[in-house]
Amino acid sequence: MAWTKYQLFLAGLMLVTGSINTLSAKWADNFIAEGCGGTAEHSFQHPFLQAVGMFLGEFSCLAAFYLLQCRATGQSVSSVDPQQPFNPLLFLPPALCDMTGTSLMYVALNMTSASSFQMLRGAVIIFTGLFSVAFLGRRLVPSLWLGILATIAGLVVVGLADLLSKQDNQHKLSEVITGDLLIIMAQVIVAIQMVLEEKFVYKHNVHPLRAVGTEGLFGFVILSLLLVPMYYIPAGSFSGNPNGTLEDALDAFCQLGKQPLIALALLGNISSIAFFNFAGISVTKELSATTRMVLDSLRTVVIWALSLALGWETFHPLQILGFLILLTGTALYNGLHRPLLACLSRGWHPAPEAERERLLDGNRTPINETN
Questions:
Q1: Cβ neighbours, 10 Å, residue 353
Q2: CA 3 to CA 286: how far, in whole Å?
Q3: Cβ(370)–Cβ(58) below 8 Å
Q4: Cβ within 8 Å of residue 267, ≥6 positions away
Q5: SS3 66
Q6: Residue ranges of the alpha helices (H) in 38-165?
Q7: Do residues 165 and 307 touch, judged by C-beta distance below 8 A?
Q8: Domain of life here (predicted)?
Q9: Model-level pTM?
Q10: CB 18 within 8 A of CB 276
C-alpha cells in the first residue's frame, strides 16, 4: 500500500532529526574555543551539560502531549487520554537509568567517531533480550537468539575496525577503546531502563509523549542539580575542561559566548531530540514499529556518510561489514525477516504470541528510544 504524503513526511522527519541528533552533538564536540578567565583554547567537552540539553528536548514532549490533548478536546474520538491515572514517580527509576546511560554515551562520543557510536548502540539488543529472560520471564525463540549472536559478531567487527583506524587524528587509540567500552556499558543501563518500563510503566497505558516528557522532566531537574557538585569533583585526565573537574558548566557557557556556533549545535541537539521522539511515536502509530526500526538503521548510514564527507573520520571497509552484520541482527531480533519469509512461502503463518510479545518488537516500542 502506498504511503500518504503525511506518512512520508513523518518518515523523513524521523530520519532527518535522528541523524541531526548525533551529528549536532559531535559537531559541538569538535569546536575549540577559549574558556572563562581567558584560558587557552580547548575542545568543547561538556557531556553532562549536553545530556541536560537532551533531557530538555525530551521534556518538551510533555508540551506536545498537552497540545494534542487540547486539540482533542471536544472530539468524540481521541488518541490522547488525559484521564489515564498513573503515578509520575513510576518514571523516576527509568529516568535515572536514562540519565546515567545518556551521560555515559555523551562522554563516549567525545572519544570515538559518530558512526561507531551509532553502530555500537545496537548492543542494547543483547542486554535487553537477556534481561527480559531473567527478569520478565520471556522465552526467546531461535530467531531472537540468532539476532543476539549476529549483533555480538557485528560489535566485534565494528570494534576491530576502530582498533585498525589508528590514523584517526581526532582520537587516540586508547580513547577510542575507552569510548567504545563506555557505549557498551551504557547499553546495559539502557536495557535496564527498558525492562523497568516494561514491568512497571507499560501496564498503565500512558501516552508515549507523556511518558517521554515525564522522564525528561526528571532527568532535566536531577542532572541540572548535579552540575553543581560536578563542578567541584576532580576528574584528572578524564576531565576535558581546564578546571580538571567532572563538569564545568561555567566554562561551557564561556565557550558558548566565544563561539556562538556551539550554541547552534546544542540547539540542534535539543530540538532534534524533541522532533525525533514525536516523529518516532507517530511513525509507529501511522505505519509500524518495523518501519521505525528500518528508519533507525538508515540514520546510521546517514550519520556515517556525512561523517566521512565532513572529514570527521576515515573510511574503513570493516565498518561496512560490521554494519551489515548488526543490521542482520537487528532484523532477526525485531522480526523483519518474517515479511520476507511470507513472500517466499504462501504457507507462512504468523509467529506464535510468545514470540511476538517481547521487548523491542513490533507491538512494544521502547518509551524513549531517543539518544
A1: 8
A2: 10
A3: yes
A4: none
A5: helix
A6: 47-72, 92-109, 114-120, 124-136, 142-164
A7: no
A8: Eukaryota
A9: 0.83
A10: yes
